[in-house]
Amino acid sequence: MSQTTDKIVVEDIRKSFGSVEALRGASLSIKAGEITAIVGDNGAGKSTLVKCLTGLYSPDSGRILIDGQPVHFSSPRDAREKGVETVYQDLALSDQLSVWQNMYMDRELVRGIPGFTLLRRKEMRERAGELIADLAVNVPGVRRSVKRLSGGQRQAVAIARGVMWAKNMIILDEPTAALGLNETAQVEALIRRVVEGGMTVLVVSHNFEQVKRLSQQVWVMRAGRVVGGTRTADVTGEQLVGMVTGAVRTVE
């Protein structure tokens, strides 16, 4: 049995929108320093659960724990302050800004006194450049505007920004959905390097082959519940499909 500790624990989370129960008692755990995946069909509750983990939604009941301590997120800022960063499918990058400006967007380093502050531009450029180099991200310089980057490079910048600010976990929502085969491979290699550096990653994906390649643990959601979980090495792609559809209850 793995001795890796649980970084994040979700206990019996429930969330309703009027008469619609989006989450009906979802529970799972995310181990430190691993890639954990959540899979499920459309409407299974994956997005709602992620939004509870990122502060976009507040659960109606249940608990979220980080390192064994209960936390409550009333906004995305609360989640970020607790070290939970999210890379959504739209990436939330500004095309008109440079790579380093995107990495520090809304978190700029400043100096001076209240009422008169200056941006620490050189320091931000240098720090961004060092991180990009450490992660071996294929980006042609941090001064380059994001609009001139390829889809894979944009995804890499968004992930690097998450690495820069995350203390506890990065959530990746369909991280390669819009990418071709070569860029998908490059982004997956980056995700592996991020975890090798000690980060905890949660991936939400419809791509079972990707889940098998990347993750160490996979949880399956159906109808607002987490209906099963297994070490990824112990399950086949066919079994995952069966768990998602309900044809397979658990993996022996």
What does this 3D model show about the protein?
The protein is of the alpha/beta class and 252 residues long. It folds into two domains: 1-83 and 167-252, P-loop containing nucleotide triphosphate hydrolases (Rossmann fold), CATH 3.40.50; 93-165, no CATH class. The chain is 32% helix and 29% strand. The protein has helices at 46-53, 76-81, 99-103, 121-134, 151-165, 181-196, 208-214, 237-245, and strands spanning 6-17, 20-31, 35-40, 61-66, 69-71, 84-87, 110-113, 116-119, 169-173, 201-204, 217-222, 225-231. It has a six-stranded mixed β-sheet, with helices on both faces. A four-stranded antiparallel β-sheet has the order 2-1-4-5, covered by helices on one side. The protein has a two-stranded antiparallel sheet with strand order 7-8. It is globular and about 60 Å long. It starts with 5 loop residues before the first strand and ends in a 7-residue tail after the last helix.
Task: Give a short synopsis of this structure.
This protein is of the alpha/beta class.
Question: What is the secondary structure topology, with strand pairs?
Answer:
Blueprint: E1 6-17, E2 20-31, E3 35-40, H1 46-53, E4 61-66, E5 69-71, H2 76-81, E6 84-87, H3 99-103, E7 110-113, E8 116-119, H4 121-134, H5 151-165, E9 169-173, H6 181-196, E10 201-204, H7 208-214, E11 217-222, E12 225-231, H8 237-245
Helix pairs in contact: 5-6
